[in-house]
Amino acid sequence: MWQNGDFLVPHINGVPYSHKPPLLFWLIHCVWAIFGVGELSARLVAPLWGLISILLTLKMAQRLWPDKPQIRAAVPYIMLGALIWSVYSTFTMFDTLLTGCVLLSMHSVYSASLKRWAPFSWMLAGLFIGLGILAKGPIVCVYVLPAIVCAPVWVKPHTVSWPLWYLGALFSTALGVGVALCWALPAASAGGEEYAKAILLHQTADRVINSFAHNRPFFWYLTIVPLLFFPWFFWPPSWRTTRYQWKEPGTRFCLVSIVAAFVLLSSISGKQMHYVLPAMPLAALLIARNLANLKESKVLDRFPIFIIMVSLGIALVSLPVMSLEGGDRAVLTKLPVWLPVLPVACAVPLLLPTKSSGAGTRLVSVCMAALFVTLHVSLREPLHATYSQHEVARFLESAEAQKRPVAVFPADLFDQFQFSGRLTQALYPAKSLPDLMKWARRHPGGYSLLFTRDRRNLAQVGSKTVLDYNNGWLSISSSSELTNPPRTAVN
Asked: Helix and strand tally (H, E) in the chain?
């Protein structure tokens, strides 16, 4: 977008990018227009929406339970202390932006429930649904529409006119689709037939029916619920009084939305942990409501979390002596030797007595936040050493300055280095090693990047430069080196 000024059809390596809508890209480019192009400014956009989502959740707590300020006070601690939120809200992810759009839509829907007919609220709901579609696609409807359809469960009796309610719901949904189509139809026309089919049909339908990535069984989310809501799942006061709060419209509003979203997400073939991120604010509201009834915080209630964190420390101690397999084994072998101390050190304060329920909530949250922050800091160096693109980016920048073409193998590397190398020319994605060899013969002045996790494969190329990258090796070869490898293999 930034290079060619085309803000209608996103491109990557010169090819239209159809996997996600453009709203996050637009926001990043707005930031670049103000502060200049940079990695840090781009990385701060999604986390900023994580902060906005916390503020929107605080406002929702105030609206649902105006007479219980302790709920509003507990919400930020619950969200920041939750594993899924503390991890994913710091990444550049579409789900964080989607969460903000969902909460804005939820606020509008709730406003519509306070009047017999609220056309302005329905218009806002439609606008935010449209922005949600532009953030990550129709998945926004999975979180917003259940609250609308199931409104008779949570709306106070005799507050709204149900014919007008569902008319407003139809209007807001149509408006949301219309907002999204204001981008999608011109983009489909400009991007070509294949791009049009991808954004209008395949990207949504294929993920729902038969996902081309992350295809998992229906019950998968149920199996990871403890992890999704760690540590609050393992703190009994967080959930044991939920059934007593069913009479409250706020509880029903959150519970209906969460349960319906989980059922619908489970029905979609593609599943990932971060797909449920927009449900976390509603879960935090429910947890905060349960904790509002807590008169005291017992040490015994926090003991399960203590045991889990100590067990994590023991597991980290055993990693060096384990036979590690899988793509991330290299990262695990580079962990600091003192890392196992962190979970135990963060767990010890959980055994301290607290004077009030609010103090207990804050204690759990601070211990979790301390663990997440220290783990982030501790893993920074090994992750940077494993995934850093600095060296390859310098090479690609130099090759482009010399007007030397570059090919990559495997082909899925073709979109990995554009930003880090500030490239303006496309990399050639070789489909196979013979294809790479043919390309090298056609471009005698070019270079080739070959990535492998089997060092023996490097013997097939005459590379003088081999970089550690992504738990494997990335060889940089000139076309002459590639087509005329040395007799001696790389050891």
From this structure: 23, 7
Virtual torsion, Cα 216, 217, 223, 227, nearest 10 deg: 20
Residue 367 lies in a domain: no
Cα Dmax for the chain: 85
Q: Per the domain annotation, does 49 fall within a domain?
A: yes
Any domain includes 463: yes
Structure tokens at 45: 């956009």
Alpha-carbon distance values, 350 to 79, 263, 364, 369, 473 (Å): 18, 34, 7, 13, 43
Closest CA to 235 of 276, 311, 157, 291: 291
Residues 396 and 382 in one domain: no
Question: Are the beta carbons of 97 and 23 closer than 8 angstroms?
Answer: yes
- One-letter amino acid of 216: R
Domain containing 348 equals: 301-356+378-387
Hey, how many other C-beta atoms are within 10 angstroms of the C-beta on 34?
8
Query: What Rg value do the Cα atoms of the chain yield, rounded?
Result: 26
Q: Are residues 313 and 279 in the same domain?
A: no
Q: 15: which DSSP letter?
A: E
Residue 198 pLDDT exceeds 50: yes
Q: What is the pTM of this model?
A: 0.88
- Tell me the per-residue pLDDT of 408-435, one tens digit each, with 9 for 90 and over: 998 888 888 888 888 888 899 999 888 9
In a domain, residue 168? The reply is yes
Q: Are residues 265 and 338 in the same domain?
A: no
**C-beta separation of 131 from 21 below 8 A:** no
Amino acid at 365: S
**Are 283 and 258 within 8 A, CB to CB?**
yes
Say whether both 341 and 382 belong to one domain.
yes
